[in-house]
From TrEMBL:
One Pfam match: VWA_2
A cellular-component GO term for this protein: proteasome complex
Protein name: 26S proteasome non-ATPase regulatory subunit 4 homolog (26S proteasome regulatory subunit RPN10) (OsRPN10) (26S proteasome regulatory subunit S5a homolog) (OsS5a)
Domain VWFA: 2-174
Amino acid sequence: MPLESTMVCLDNSEWMRNGDYTPTRMEAQHDAANLVCGSKTQQNPESTVGILTMAGSGVQVLCSPTDDMGKILTASSNIKIGGKSGFASGLQIAQLALKHRKNKNGGQRIVMFVGSPVETEEKKLVKIAKQLKKGNVAVDLVSMGESEANEAKLTAFIEAVNKNSNSHLVTIPRGVLPSDVLITSPVITGEEGGGGGGGGGGGATMFSEFGGVDPNLDPELAMVLRMSMEESRANAEGQADAGGDDGGGEAKAAETADRPPSSAGGGEQAAAGMDEEEMDEDSLMQQALLMSMGETGASSGATSSSSSRGGGGGGGKGDAASFLDPGFVEGLLKNLPDVNPDDPAIQQALNNTRGANDDDDDEEDDGDSKKKKKKDKKKKKDKE
């Protein structure tokens, strides 16, 4: 953007107390003015911005054109409301401030917010506009609140001051944040972005990489929005890449998300070392058995079951039987995709497991019976 010096003229009259803009005209104007100041200084590092108020005790220059954003924000932070706005005198003093700016290079521009009735006669306004045009001063008017009453005068003024489409009239509808309208208007995007003085425009949005927030004004919010946008963009690209494989990537992600976590390292290594696309039913069943062993060993319920079968927590056949509990494995297999629990090979494996457990139970019963017989013999011998 070209080098430019800008004077921002603020309306601080009694009319700015109205609440037809959120929260008031004054607060809405303040946010919009900060947006204008930030964008002007960011578009070119040598551009300068000044601020003046048009009501109260009279026109007051709060800040001469400067590139120090801190001074600009401080000047616009504590503005008092009162009196009537001097539209004509505000324009003339703004022109003088630009004429006496330190850096004489670059263009000159006045951005004036109008939130109260313009009492100056249209004939005088046109005369001032011609003087500004002769001095190569462009003017952007931001009309808010009294747009219908001021429309004829403001339109005549812009037509008189306009030179090669360098001046614009932007009307802010009631209930709409002025900053939301200005961000896509020629006031922010420049002469090339807006396309006329109507306040619309299809130019590129300023600070689009920060969600439309000026990082100079709110760096924390701007960075949060930027990170959020980058994350959303990355997620969208990832979904697009996955969708390019006939939905296969989404199916894999869903299967992985639904799979219960395993505490056994062997089960995780087996799952990591095998390509799911190449796994047949036998491989899936083997992986399921490994995972079930890990989960059963990690759960307290399985531990208590192991203790009841094995007679203490010492391990051996009782622990192995609990790890390969047929009922648990059969229930797990029913929830696995592409696995048929009624497959003859799977049923045979489950039957073999049941048979092994039954044999263990029989051995335990035989052992208990022998112990009982020994006790009976000892009691009988003691009685004799």
